[in-house]
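Example 468.
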Amino acid sequence: MHRNEQRGNFCPYYPQPRKNKATLLKMFFSARYSWLDALYERSYRMKIGEVHLPGIDLYMVNAPEAVRRVMTSDAGRFLKSPLLGQALKPLLGESIFTTNGHQWERQRRMMDPAFAQARLNVSFPVMSSAVDDMLARLAGKPDGAEHDVEIEMTHVTADIIFRTIFSQPLESDGARRIFNAFTRFQALSPRLMLPSLFGLRWLVWPWDIWRSRRAAREIRQLLASLIRPRHTAFLEGASEQPADILQSFMEARDSDTGAHFSFEELVDQVAMLFLAGHETSASALTWACHLIAQCKELQQRMIDECQSVAGKQPLQASDVRSLELTRNVFRETLRLFPPVGFIARQLQSSCTLGRKRLPDGATVVVSPWLIHRHREYWQRPDLFDPDRFVAEDARESLRQAYLPFGMGPRVCLGAAFALQEAVLILIRLVSSYELHPVAGHTPIPVGRLTIRSANGVRLQLHRRSARP
Ligand code: HEM
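Predicted structure in complex with protoporphyrin IX containing FE:
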């Protein structure tokens, strides 16, 4: 770990890229463990690169103008790649995350209202209660104890999304079973996806397929058992229904036909939301805690800002929006450790991108991980520096080369929700505890479904005597 005393910041560890491109076989075996290990030095400098795998032509697109075309101006030609969809389909069915064309447009129109800005105020008290519970869990351990914050962050974010969808906490038996089955499903996903990417589908173990489908079936059955009584009550016109996301999805109507989501569609969308709504946030928050723990002074600055905004009063949604430093800490974490490390699209008809001619059906990968650490687009790309978000000289980099939530029509539906939740969790945690790194423990980033740590993120939490 390299410290830069001048700015008081540091370079968190990440796997050093190999000097040269690996052979296909080496690439496959490295990527099986973590796709970050398949990258090489030029990956962080090139504009558009290409790899030809058996059965798949893959183009890595880093150049900002080409990224904008793929994601925004020509998005209709670059549709969601089936790669992720195939692995997630048993769980997510035809959810918004994987659909394309008219089906996606209809789903997006029906789901947008549940994430409108106004709804954030409604979800704020729900988030606050889940954070209260997180702090109560932490208080149950001795002062100065070591914690694996990945476990805590996964718990609190799963709890928040569960409460926001169903108006009930994760603690119930059914919710716990859903959560456990999700963990099993996620662990298996890369093993199912990678061989397809290399055109080696026959390498997928039938045992893994069976286990993944079984976990997906279990999750869907449990979710269906929670949705069923609410759906029945809705169809019967029950008046007393909680104002949660499930309710918003049930009320939504197709603007052309006036039809509601079917029961199956509701299960698809809820399953997707549970996955998208906690896996990504948990990953980013875990890295944020790791980064914050290295910077004692930064923790104090976060507390000072919070005190000047809210004094000793409990935090309100509007206060959270004013916590600029904490928000920049989280945004900088998303730059260095973007949970969605790559975004895959499939080209519908051949075209020229930059100076390259891409064939029909090519897979185009836009990697926030590479773009956010690109040597030409960022100054000090590997340095953790939350203040770059207010620095004049970083404006252009942020405009051109920052996309943790994607961009264009398929930009993350939950971005504002995720930011509100993250700022709240981080400031409440830092206000209650001093975060300290554990000597000798260096988290190793690995690229799987999201960017996680291979060895967890262990921190010591010391209670602050006077809580703001
Ligand atoms: C830090 C947290 C998060 C990050 C970094 C993140 C990132 C992303 C990215 C990069 C995409 C675009 C994928 C693509 O273009 O292929 C996406 C899509 C999506 N995200 Fe998030 N996300 C986060 C949190 C959330 C949360 C909390 C929710 C819901 C509560 C959510 C719901 C969705 C949905 C529904 C989509 C699909 C949108 C569509 O295809 O129309 N995300 N997210």
